[in-house]
What does this fold into?
Amino acid sequence: AQKVTQAQTEISVVEKEDVTLDCVYETRDTTYYLFWYKQPPSGELVFLIRRNSFDEQNEISGRYSWNFQKSTSSFNFTITASQVVDSAVYFCALIRGGADGLTFGKGTHLIIQP
Amino acid sequence: EAGVAQSPRYKIIEKRQSVAFWCNPISGHATLYWYQQILGQGPKLLIQFQNNGVVDDSQLPKDRFSAERLKGVDSTLKIQPAKLEDSAVYLCASHRGSGGGAWNEQFFGPGTRLTVL
It folds into this structure.
């Protein structure tokens, strides 16, 4: 069985602060894929990033960066210089190589205050 | 490219009534998923289709939930009879891959918010 844990239920920061969202996963599979999705108040899930289990390179995309560490089974997401538009619920998710559905964490509600 | 379409967006029913949701995936996407998202939780997979065949329905409460994907395009999810605990957002997602497509990004629709009174 797979499991994704997002221990931070809600985070509130002031605009321009950096913020890190934690994600810890459990799986017995050697091939798997990790994802981050954003869910704004409108409700639609928006894809942000994916990594496969064989690629531990960190990734940076603008103000967003991701740190994948297999040794600690973590896939953390950092927003640098946060903005009000970053306010949303962020989900970390995992899918095994056998192509069944995504296993999501419970999500972290990020509030960016002006 | 048009996104995943779902209807209705909102539905309110009494317990023990029936309800159906419709999903039209992105054109050409072979794989379609239905997820249930209860308030305050992450989405949970209900069923996965590849073309018009069921790949995984292990988490679908089959005594009351049913789903079909005729002709490998549109899909409907039905609940009969509904219970209070079925109140949730029902999300449809699709991706282009078929077979070994776990890598593919799943595109999500806006969801149907169901309230059971």
Summary: Chain B touches chain A at residues 31, 33, 35, 40-45, 48, 55-56, 89, 91, 93, 97, 99-103, 105-111, 113 (CB under 8 Å). The mean pLDDT of chain B is 92. DSSP finds no helices and eleven strands in chain B. The longest strand of chain B covers residues 88-95.
